[in-house]
Amino acid sequence: MSEDNMSEEFLNDYVLLKSYFEAKNYKKIDADNEHITLYTLYQKSSYYIINLVHLPPKHAFDIQAYEFYMDSLSHQFSQYNTDRVIMLTIFVGDWNRSLYDYFNKRPNIEAKTIEVTWFVSSDTRDLDIPDQQLNSVMGIEKPIRELLKNKKQTYYAIEKQSQRQHITLLIGLINVIVWMLMEMNGSSTDANTLMRFGAIHVEYIIRTQQYWRFVSAMFLHIGGMHLLFNLFGLYIFGSRLEKYISARHFAMIYLGAGVFGSILSFGYHFFTQTEVIAAGASGAIYGLIGGALVLSKAMNRSMDGINDYIIWLFFIYGIVYSVVSPNVDLFAHVGGFVGGIAISIPIVRLRLKEIGGTEDEAR
């Protein structure tokens, strides 16, 4: 292979890796060096700094200058209020064995700043991680290897679209107004008032075929505490989810999951022949939890401070509470959660894009 061809291939790999970090919404920072591209990401109380270093053929790499650059970078980011700073350097290009051996040393994982160094192999054009180095950083080593091997990779282009919370606030306001109207016209805990405003009752729906109650019931609440709990869940998950999807898709998830939860609750009480009056936004809110889980997994990062781990904790706690509390509708919760996931998956798939392509496309 000629030197020019090798240089072009390494440049392709360098461009592919840049595309990967930009697709994953890492923040690009000016590195003041044409051979270095710098990215940062804050996640799970840690700051990650990615140095992509392109080494052209016969490039005289100055280790002392690079160490000075890394010390300056470490000092700059160590000032941030964060648990630790992980600085990952990936060398792409014409690196030699002496450079590889120099960086083949075990990082001090107890330090606030941890320096990690990886290479893109000159022979296999694959990720080469020195034996003494950390072999995993945020789990990105696997997708990077796949990208270098296949020269393309799909990803979900999910970015924050705005800071708006208009639909979340509107839904919360509707819930409050309806609750106030119920209190003014009887009581939100009174069975007759609930039925007049559109609560779910199995026998009544079968007799009257008023299936619109599957929608109306999600805007009713039985008592002030019921309303406050659901407003809290709506704010926590709705205000975040709304920033990443359109208002139309947000409404689809909220209403669709709420209806799905109402139907599952209706079905359970129908087959068990239990007499209950069901109402509440819980099914719809669990749908937002399911939607947040789908988006968080697709982004592979936290959504304004909540990640899939936190979302699962909220869900599990809610389900346990539903089981031990006799007046809480477990099936509405589970139905809403499943409905939110089912509706969110095709919405997220609309954001499916591709990094790279053929060798010509990568250039």
- Would you count the extended β strands for me? 8
* Helix run count: 14
CATH architecture of the largest domain: Up-down Bundle
The CATH C-level class name of the largest domain: Mainly Alpha
Q: Report the uncertain regions.
A: 1-6, 358-363
Structural class: alpha/beta
Beta fraction of the residues? 5-15%
Shape: elongated
Q: What's the number of structural domains?
A: 2
Radius of gyration: 27 Å
Q: What's the arrangement of strands in the largest beta sheet? A: 1-2-3-4-5-6
**Quick one: CATH superfamily of the largest domain?**
Rhomboid-like
Mean pLDDT: 86
Order of helices and strands: HEEEHEHEEHEHHHHHHHHHEH
The CATH topology of the largest domain is what? Answer: Rhomboid-like fold
Terminal-residue CA separation = 18 Å
Work out the helicity level: 40-55%
* Largest sheet report: 6 strands, mixed
List its salient traits.
53% helix, 14% strand, two-stranded antiparallel sheet, 2 domains, alpha/beta, 6-stranded mixed beta sheet, 8 strands, disordered C terminus, elongated, disordered N terminus
Brief sketch in words of this structure:
This protein has helices at 3-23, 63-78, 97-102, 141-150, 166-184, 191-197, 202-208, 213-216, 224-241, 247-272, 282-299, 308-324, 330-349, 359-362; strands spanning 27-29, 36-43, 46-55, 84-93, 113-120, 127-128, 152-156, 352-356. By secondary structure, it is an alpha/beta fold.
